[in-house]
Write a structure and sequence with these properties.
- By secondary structure, the chain is mostly helical.
- It has helices spanning 2-31, 38-56, 59-70, 77-93, 98-121, 124-145, 153-159, 165-187, 190-194, 204-217, 256-273, 290-304, 308-321, 331-338, 352-370, 379-391, 417-436, 440-445, 450-459, 469-477, 483-497; strands at residues 225-229, 235-239, 242-247.
- It has a three-stranded mixed sheet with strand order 1-3-2.
- Strand 2 (235-239) and strand 3 form a beta hairpin.
- The longest helix is centred in the N-terminal third of the chain and has 30 residues, at 2-31.
């Protein structure tokens, strides 16, 4: 038994290193790699993916795990937890051939570069063949994994373990009706009819300084992480002490780079806070779900950065760094501007109220693509039709529509629903934090964010995969996923803003 324990810990560490290598290659591809390097990078990533998968599904590892599972009652609590979690992961991985993993990695690596070029040139047709291949591979994957119920469950389970299409369709149906009702009341209001967008023009240097200042105030450990630029902001982890985040600086807009930096910082703080020491380089030192991971980014982006107290703190910072752009604005004006409800084409720039509608739109399209209800060629038209139905606006170009997200180029079907799940979790976590820390608004208005960081670490980060996402939320908030908390939060915030 001791030999088997030693073997599984060695293999987990090496699989962690494989993951770090792949993450570094992927980060470089999305930031600094020359365009013509895509072919070789695809081969490198596919090789790493195949080697890692072959190690994970090896008969030797599986034999050692079976030995340990059979002797589970003789293991201490730490070893038993790790063996149970690892065995479940490995049993699922063994259903998928290594050749398939290698092929998917190669296809998605090339697809990302094709998506990036198609987005820049606004030519969906050049990306479509790549997406068709990815969908075919996703359908093959479903056949390998075969999670019970709807075919999409097999994709969803990789992102949000235990979640099903039936649950999401029920939850999203309720959430959608509540959001549409509130949106209708807001758009009918006098305040909405007379609101005007606040145009803020900042140089890239000013945006970079603002983002750096914000990270410093968060006590973001720059000796363990770094900030760079990419087409689509993201976070990735190469190792316990090497987490990378990116943002995208715009020439004009409502400080989108600031919010994307705050969003990605939330992801990074989670990665940096995952359990180490006795769980270092094991399956436990990871997030139990993407929804819980997303709750951390949405918490910081929305609950904190879009709050009134935050703008009490941040307005003077903004005036110091970009006083020329702030003429005629004040704290209250900035707060209202950053929280304008305005149906938009771009998901990552959407306001809190309409954001989940963007997610529901993508979820419904993914279901239709996976089940063959619609074809890739029909996708742009279906996208625009749903945008018109949900928001009353139609994207003028595919760049502002179906080509705006990188997820499908990476084969990340099942990912989008976790954004809505995370948004709801974030509101529940913030409500609980307010109960336990009534001074939170005063703290934020003074730029004191470390108490929040510490609380999230104690109640979310430190558990890793010791508990499921549902167990963590129930343990912290006293209940599982509850869209009512999120809708109540929206009403309490936006009804006063729009005098409804």
């Amino acid at each position: 038994m001791e030999e088997s324990l030693k073997y599984i810990y060695k293999e987990q560490k090496e699989l962690t290193n494989f993951g770090g290598i792949a993450a570094l290659l992927g980060w470089d591809q999305m930031t600094y790699m020359p365009l013509k390097g895509s072919g070789a990078r695809a081969e490198q990533l596919s090789l790493i993916s195949r080697l890692a998968h072959e190690r994970a599904i090896s008969d030797e590892l599986y034999t050692h795990l079976k030995t340990l599972k059979d002797a589970a009652d003789q293991l201490d609590e730490r070893d038993r937890i790790i063996v149970t979690r690892l065995a479940k992961d490995i049993e699922k991985a063994r259903k998928v051939p290594s050749a398939f993993v290698e092929q998917m990695s190669r296809v998605t690596s090339l697809a990302y570069m094709a998506w990036q070029e198609a987005r820049e040139k606004n030519t969906f047709s050049s990306f479509a063949p790549h997406l068709e291949t990815i969908i075919e591979l996703e359908q093959q994957y479903i056949e390998y994994v075969r999670i019970p119920g709807h075919p999409y469950n097999s994709l969803l389970d990789d992102c949000e373990e235990g979640m099903t299409v039936d649950v999401l369709q029920r939850e999203f149906h309720t959430l959608r009706s509540q959001l549409v009702d509130l949106l209708g009341r807001i758009t009918a209001s006098t305040v909405y009819q007379h609101q005007k967008p606040l145009k803020i023009q900042l140089t890239i240097d000013q945006q970079r300084e603002l983002c750096t200042s914000l990270l410093k105030q968060l006590a973001f450990p720059m000796d363990r992480a770094r900030l760079d630029v990419s087409t689509h902001p993201f976070t990735t982890s190469m190792a316990d002490d090497d987490v990378r985040i990116t943002t995208n600086y715009e020439k004009e807009g409502l400080l989108s780079s600031l919010f994307s930096t705050m969003h990605e910082a939330g992801h990074a703080l989670y990665e940096l806070g995952l359990p180490q020491e006795e769980y270092k380089d094991t399956v436990i030192s990871d997030a139990p779900s993407l929804g819980l991971h997303e709750s951390q980014s949405r918490f910081w982006e929305n609950m904190i950065a879009r709050s009134q107290p935050f703008w009490t703190y941040f307005t003077p910072v903004l005036n110091t760094i970009a006083s020329d752009a702030m003429v005629g604005t004040d704290e209250r004006g900035l707060y209202k501007a950053m929280n304008q409800v305005r149906p938009s084409f771009i998901r990552i720039e959407a306001d809190e109220l309409t954001y989940c509608l963007h997610v529901i739109l993508r979820f419904e399209l993914e279901l239709d693509l996976i089940t063959g209800k619609i074809t890739v060629a029909e996708l742009p038209g279906c996208w625009n039709q749903k945008m018109t139905e949900f928001f009353g606006i139609t994207p003028p170009t595919d760049k502002e529509g179906v080509l705006q997200d990188m997820h499908w180029s990476g084969g990340e079907f099942g990912y989008f629903p976790t954004y809505a799940i995370g948004t709801m979790y974030a509101s529940q976590l913030f409500k609980q934090y307010e109960r336990e820390h009534p001074t939170v608004h005063d703290d934020v208005s003074q730029g004191q964010f470390t108490p929040v960081v510490h609380w999230l670490h104690e109640h979310v980060h430190r558990y890793g995969r010791l508990l499921t996402a549902d167990e963590i939320i129930k343990k912290t908030c006293g209940e599982g996923l509850n869209s009512t908390v999120f809708v109540t939060y929206l009403k309490e915030k936006y009804c006063p803003l729009y005098d409804i």
